[in-house]
Amino acid sequence: KCMAKVLGTLPPVELFHAADATEALLLLDQLQPDVVVIDDESPEERDLFLDSLTAVHPPIILQSDSGSNQ
User: Fold this and answer.
1) Residue 50 and residue 55: Cα distance in Å, rounded?
2) For 22-41, what is each residue's pLDDT tens digit?
3) What is the Cα–Cα distance from 68 to 15, expressed in whole angstroms?
4) Residue 1 to residue 57: CA distance in whole angstroms
């Protein structure tokens, strides 16, 4: 949510949310984004997404809350 809030203030940024790795891969193919931001909330989904990437993909940013006390 924090990353979306920050990116949402920077025009012209379009944000899309995928519910899981399968949907993320479909969106990646359909939208061909300039960059992909992945959160670290579901390591299994993150790993599935990253393992399924082809050789040609946009830069990947991994957003992690590892230092938070939540």
Assistant:
1) 11
2) 999 999 999 988 888 888 78
3) 24
4) 24
pTM summary value: 0.68
Contact assessment for residue 27 and residue 1, using Cβ atoms and an 8 Å cutoff: no
Count Cα neighbours of 30 within 13 Å in the Cβ-side half-sphere. 8
Residue type, 61: I
Residue where the block lists tokens 């993909």: 57
Q: Are 59 and 35 in contact (CB under 8 A)?
A: yes
Rg (CA), the chain: 12
53, 29 contact by CB (below 8 A)? no
Q: Report the C-alpha dihedral over residues 38, 61, 2, 43, rounded to 10 degrees.
A: 30
